[in-house]
Amino acid sequence: MIGSWNVASGAYGKKDGWDDDEQTNKVLIIQSLTTAGAAVGALFSGNIAFLGRWNCIMIANLVLCVGVGITLIDDFVVLCIGRFIYGISVGAFSVFCPKYISETAPIEVKGPAGALSQVCITFGILVAFTVGLGIGDVDEDDVDSFEIQDYWYILFALPLIFSTIQIIFLYCIFPYDTPVSLKQNGNLEDLNKLMNNIYKSEEIA
Fold this sequence. Notes:
By secondary structure, this protein is mostly helical. Helices cover 76% and strands 0% of the residues.
């Protein structure tokens, strides 16, 4: 949902009365800060990898919720801070989610499972732009209309929905860490249970 700002920027700028130069500069500032946050999240997420992939994904969800919550405060400087924090979570997800899939999926489905994660990313971008259609033509919308004044809240809050779904799935369907992480942390009992869930007993060496 990192593309939500691209969709909402026109309405947000009109709401705050930005001229063309302000619109260009501030849109680029937000985009740059989000990308910078993603770079920080990707580069330094390895420092918490010892906590386990599952825990790291949950932490990334927490960071995402904090970042999104901050962006819902109607102030440009606060928005910049929120988008940077949000970017950190995006960078962390780009490291830990593929890692979780590659270390957990059985060998025979590892390739399709990895490809599916890329499809889901593309789907998320599609959702952001599809929901953004509700803004309509910014140039024709009245400045006091809901589309200009408040619709951006919906776009910025969308990641909270996906984050909630992921948290529910992690707790209810995938409530375990990866085999690699469990072995590294010496949690052999949980490792044996997990391997028995993933593979048939005769396939476990």
